[in-house]
Amino acid sequence: MFASSAVRARLATVAARRGFSTSRAQLASPYHYAEGPRTNIPFNPLTKYFFFRYWAFMITGFGSPFAIAVWQTYKTK
Predict the structure, then answer these.
(1) How far is CA 25 from the centre of its chain?
(2) Would you say residue 41 has pLDDT above 70?
(3) Would you kindly state where each structural domain of the chain is located, as residue ranges?
(4) What is the arithmetic mean of pLDDT over 29-50?
């Protein structure tokens, strides 16, 4: 009687010590995504025209408020 309760107590402590981080990653899971460099961005920086697209996007986004302000300033009332 004491032996079986001792075995159960020992197994309970071993199971309680096992951390979640020791579980194996489920690669077939739909919630697991690829890891590594350039996998956390929604575009591919390795394409041929990425440099030109990037700067066109930046110039458009940064320059639009200034162009709109100039247009509003010189607009006739």
Answers:
(1) 17
(2) yes
(3) 38-76
(4) 81
Question: Is the model's pLDDT at 39 over the cut of 60?
Answer: yes
pLDDT at 19 over 60: no
Distance, in Å, from the CA atom of 30 to the CA atom of 76, rounded to the nearest integer, reads 57
Three state DSSP letters for the chain: CHHHHHHHHHHHHHHHHCCHHHCCCCCCCCCCCCCCCCCCCCCCCCCCCHHHHHHHHHHHHHHHHHHHHHHHHHCCC
Handedness of CA 13, 15, 16, 20 (dihedral sign): positive
| Token output for 51 | 């440099």
Question: Which of residues 64 and 12 earns the better pLDDT score?
Answer: 64
